[in-house]
Automatic annotation (TrEMBL):
<keyword id="KW-0413">Isomerase</keyword>
<dbReference type="InterPro" id="IPR015888">
    <property type="entry name" value="Fuc_isomerase_C"/>
</dbReference>
<keyword id="KW-0119">Carbohydrate metabolism</keyword>
<protein>
    <submittedName>
        <fullName>Fucose isomerase</fullName>
    </submittedName>
</protein>
<dbReference type="GO" id="GO:0008736">
    <property type="term" value="F:L-fucose isomerase activity"/>
</dbReference>
<dbReference type="InterPro" id="IPR009015">
    <property type="entry name" value="Fucose_isomerase_N/cen_sf"/>
</dbReference>
<dbReference type="GO" id="GO:0006004">
    <property type="term" value="P:fucose metabolic process"/>
</dbReference>
<feature type="domain" description="L-fucose isomerase C-terminal">
    <location>
        <begin position="341"/>
        <end position="468"/>
    </location>
</feature>
<dbReference type="Pfam" id="PF02952">
    <property type="entry name" value="Fucose_iso_C"/>
</dbReference>
<dbReference type="GO" id="GO:0005737">
    <property type="term" value="C:cytoplasm"/>
</dbReference>
Length: 471
């Protein structure tokens, strides 16, 4: 995971009757930890306030002004308490800066042999006071797993990684733009959603009729240089297997037009009509293009599943790796904690080491197999698993989501398409929750364990209704 583009604002709390050396020492330690993680820091200079700490209202204004100058860059704020700290100074800083970003509160632990006046910290108590004041101010914040923890402790390192995921999700979801290409297939009521609820949460949907995309694609041919370039891109992306050259050209033309639409509208993700207009009116599947988009960190879902591709985008932000839209598809024999995840074939190739461009046999039974080339075939091997789903609950007028962690396994699975076996503790309870709360049959998977970060971002900072499945 890369953190080079993450910038955190740093507040070092101080209270004047505690030893000054604690502030100076913590500054060096924290900045060293952040530098090793590739995280940029915005922090007061040591001469701008007493040792660069924040204690008084004047200190708070200086720190807030500094943060406002870097408002576009700062994704989150780390509050460091080398001693008790001044709770009002910290709260005033965040209130005046008004960044509306995640905040993580860290406090240093005391040492039993250093509880004298010259060395004691009292951060255990000070952290409670800081949190109390932020609560009073209405400022959202996160806390570390251990109440007090040294910045070099492995527990804090894990908390920091989770916090960075929270920051990426909150920042990335503020102004996300999704392309909805085509009409929702009539048979898929399950993927209906509310554009208005999404927009209220800062998520824009840009629509386009599928006929516009297909019309432009049909005007291209193999003599067009961009078609040749995209055809080469497809050949370099995956084995073409037995896919006819004519189908590969169709896929390349479609890919050209889809990329133009994404660029022209400055979109972050897309959801494309597939079943079954594309096959009947154009003659191939869009799966390969969708897979290439997702692998390139532009999530792409089928069946115009807008909130599905939004879920893919959120998981991508949390983990720094591609996501895939899947069906909760089959039980796995009589194992109550395992199931089969499946789709015709649009998963990013990060999930498919044996990836091959093929066709879609199920869809082919109604539209003709010859019209379904472009679907991918491949098995996902064992890996960590985060699963989840965002949706709009239109009757309640809210955003809601569920998420959790499990694993993908190497258990035997003889079938076609994109497939995987998932093991999730208390899977039956999860399925019960999904059914009772009206969630879709589509879910999103990511090869990570980042459900904690997603929960914190959605529930604490974005105010959504969240169920976190824990085994």
């Amino acid at each position: 995971m890369k953190n080079q583009n993450i910038t955190l604002g740093i507040i070092i709390g101080n209270r004047d009757f505690f030893p000054d050396k604690l502030v100076s020492e913590s500054r060096v330690e924290v900045l060293n930890v952040l530098e090793k993680q590739g995280i940029k820091a915005v922090i007061l200079g040591e001469n701008e306030t007493k040792l660069g700490g924040v204690e008084t209202y004047t200190d708070a204004r200086k720190c807030a002004d500094l943060f406002k100058k870097h408002k576009e860059d700062i994704a989150g704020v780390l509050v460091v308490l080398p001693n008790f700290g001044d709770e009002r100074g910290i709260a005033d800083t965040l209130h005046l800066a008004d960044l509306k970003v995640p905040v993580l509160i860290q406090g240093y632990p005391d040492e039993l042999n250093k509880l004298n006046v010259a060395n004691r910290r009292d951060s255990w108590c000070g952290k409670i006071s800081v949190c109390n004041n932020l609560y009073q101010y209405g400022i959202k914040y996160s806390i570390t797993t251990k109440h007090v923890v040294h910045p070099t402790d492995p527990s804090f390192q894990a908390d920091l990684q989770k916090f960075l995921g929270v920051c990426r999700v909150v920042k990335g979801m503020k102004n996300v733009r999704i392309g909805a290409i085509g009409a929702r297939p009539t048979a898929f009521n399950t993927v209906r959603y509310s554009e208005k609820i999404l927009q209220k949460n800062g998520i824009s949907v840009v629509t386009c009729d599928l006929s516009e995309i297909l019309g432009k694609a049909n005007k291209l041919d193999i003599t067009h240089q961009r078609v040749k370039d995209h055809l080469e891109k497809i050949h370099n992306y995956a084995s073409t297997g037995k896919t006819p050259s004519e189908s590969l050209i169709q896929m390349a033309k479609l890919d050209v037009v889809l990329n133009d639409f994404m660029t022209e509208n400055q979109l972050d993700a897309n959801a494309i009509q597939c079943w079954t207009s594309l096959q009947q009116n154009y003659g191939c599947n869009v799966c390969t293009s969708s897979s290439m988009f997702s692998e390139g960190m532009i999530p792409s879902a089928c069946e115009v599943d807008v909130t599905g591709t939004l879920s893919m985008y959120a998981m991508q932000l949390a983990s720094g790796s591609p996501s895939a839209l899947v069906d909760w598809n089959n039980n796995y024999a009589d194992d109550e904690d395992k199931c089969v995840l499946f789709h015709c074939g649009n998963w990013a190739k990060s999930f498919l080491p044996d990836i091959e461009i093929s066709n879609a046999p199920i869809l082919g039974t109604t539209v003709g197999v010859e019209n379904t080339y472009g679907a991918l075939d491949g098995r996902t091997p064992a890996s960590p698993l985060t699963f989840g789903r965002i949706t709009t609950d239109d009757t309640k007028g809210i955003m809601k989501a569920y998420m959790g962690d499990g694993v993908l396994t190497d258990d035997e699975l003889k079938t076609f398409g994109n497939r995987a076996v998932a093991k999730i503790p208390n899977l039956q309870r999860l399925m019960n929750y999904i059914c009772k709360n009206g969630f879709e049959h589509h879910v999103v998977m990511n090869a990570s364990h980042t459900s904690d970060a997603l929960k914190e971002a959605f529930e604490n900072y974005m105010g959504w209704d969240v169920y976190h499945h824990e085994g």
